[in-house]
C-alpha cells in the first residue's frame, strides 16, 4: 500500500468492475477463444485468433475501442457479431460458476457497508455483463446502484462517474480502479483515486496520478480506517 496524499473519509466509494472487483480473465479468456472459433465458422474472420494480450491490455475501454485494438483487420460485421457473442458467452461462463472475485472483495465490501459507506459500481462494460458479474458472486445487493456505459450510453468513464455523482447526490467519494480511465474519471470529477495495482492488465504508467495504490483489495479497508 502506498499513499501519495492525505485521504479524507468519503461518504461513498465508486468501484470499477474488471480488474478491480472481478478477476476478468476467469470468464473472458474462455469466452474469447470460443468467440473467435464461432467467427471463423461463420466466415466473418479468417486470420489466426489474436493474442490474448490484446484484449487483456484493452480492458476498461469501451467495446468499440476494444475490437479496433483486438482485430484491426476485422470488418464492421465481424466486430458487431463479436459484441453479441462476447456478452452471450460471458453470461454463460458466469452461470457455470467457475469465475472469481479478487480475494477479500466480498468481506471487505460488507465491512465498508456496515460502516456506512455508500457503494457504487461504474464500469465501461455492458449493463447485463456488469450486473451479471455482481449477481453471480452475491454482491449486487451491497451496491446502492450500478452504472455502466452500456446502460447509460456514456462515451467516457469521466461522463459516467459525473452522471452517477449527480443522480445519486454524492458529495464526497473515492474512485477505485485499475486503469488510467479510472484515474481520469476520479480526477476530472474532483475525487480521490485509489489505484488497484494487483490485476496487472495495464502498463506501469496506468495508475499515475492516483492518491494511493493498493496491492490487494483488502487494503482499501485499512486506507478507510486511517483516513
Automatic annotation (TrEMBL):
Note the coiled coil stretches, chain numbering: none
Which GO terms of type biological process are on file? Answer: DNA repair
> What Pfam families does this protein map onto?
Hydrolase
Q: Name one GO molecular function term.
A: phosphoglycolate phosphatase activity
Give the source lineage, highest ranks first: Bacteria, Bacillati, Bacillota, Bacilli, Bacillales
What's the protein here called?
Answer: Phosphoglycolate phosphatase
- PANTHER family in UniProt: PHOSPHOGLYCOLATE PHOSPHATASE
GO cellular component terms listed in the entry, alphabetical order: cytosol
Amino acid at each position: 500500500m502506498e499513499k501519495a496524499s492525505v485521504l479524507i473519509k468519503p461518504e461513498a466509494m465508486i468501484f470499477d468492475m474488471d480488474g478491480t472487483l472481478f478477476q476478468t480473465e476467469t470468464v473472458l479468456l474462455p469466452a474469447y477463444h470460443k468467440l473467435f472459433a464461432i467467427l471463423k465458422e461463420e466466415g466473418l474472420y479468417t486470420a489466426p485468433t489474436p493474442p490474448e494480450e490484446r484484449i487483456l491490455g484493452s480492458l476498461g475501454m469501451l467495446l468499440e475501442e476494444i475490437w479496433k485494438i483486438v482485430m484491426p483487420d476485422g470488418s464492421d460485421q465481424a466486430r458487431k457479431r463479436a459484441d453479441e457473442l462476447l456478452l452471450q458467452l460471458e453470461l454463460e461462463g458466469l452461470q457455470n460458476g467457475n469465475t472469481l472475485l479478487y480475494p477479500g472483495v466480498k468481506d471487505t465490501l460488507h465491512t465498508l457497508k456496515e460502516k456506512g459507506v455508500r457503494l457504487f459500481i461504474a464500469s465501461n462494460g455492458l449493463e447485463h455483463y456488469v450486473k451479471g458479474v455482481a449477481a453471480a458472486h452475491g454482491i449486487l445487493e451491497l451496491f446502492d446502484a450500478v452504472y455502466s456505459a452500456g446502460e447509460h450510453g456514456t462515451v467516457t468513464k469521466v461522463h459516467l462517474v459525473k452522471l452517477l455523482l449527480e443522480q445519486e447526490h454524492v458529495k464526497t467519494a473515492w474512485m477505485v480502479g485499475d486503469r488510467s480511465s479510472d484515474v481520469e474519471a476520479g480526477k476530472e470529477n474532483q475525487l480521490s483515486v485509489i489505484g488497484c495495482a494487483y490485476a496487472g492488465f495495464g502498463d506501469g504508467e496506468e495508475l499515475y496520478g492516483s492518491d494511493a495504490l493498493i496491492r490487494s483489495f483488502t487494503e482499501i479497508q485499512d486506507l478507510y480506517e486511517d483516513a
